[in-house]
């Protein structure tokens, strides 16, 4: 193998090592973001359920729109 070919091979192997490291790093970030997304979706579901419960309670407690208040 010539010196030029050897230098080219080393350069390619170096680039490959950096690419592998980048892929692993991106995979870790992606996994962390997916975990965050899952947690946020869960919290949103909880908030939606709570708002629906509060809305149902408010509707049950509020007088009907056509009903006059007792002081009339």
From TrEMBL:
Record InterPro entries: SlyX
Gene3D superfamilies the record matches: 1.20.5.300
Coiled coil spans: 23-57
Keywords: Coiled coil
Top-rank taxon, per record: Bacteria
Family: Belongs to the SlyX family.
PANTHER family: PROTEIN SLYX (PTHR36508:SF1)
HAMAP family: SlyX
UniProt-recorded name of the protein: Protein SlyX homolog
Source species of the chain: Methylococcus capsulatus
Lineage start: Bacteria, Pseudomonadati, Pseudomonadota, Gammaproteobacteria, Methylococcales
């Amino acid at each position: 193998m010539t010196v030029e070919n050897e230098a080219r091979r080393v350069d390619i192997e170096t680039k490959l090592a950096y690419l592998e490291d980048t892929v692993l790093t991106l995979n870790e970030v992606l996994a962390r973001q997916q975990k965050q997304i899952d947690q946020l979706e869960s919290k949103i579901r909880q908030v939606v359920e709570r708002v629906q419960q509060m809305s149902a309670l408010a509707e049950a407690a509020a007088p009907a729109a056509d009903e006059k208040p007792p002081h009339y």
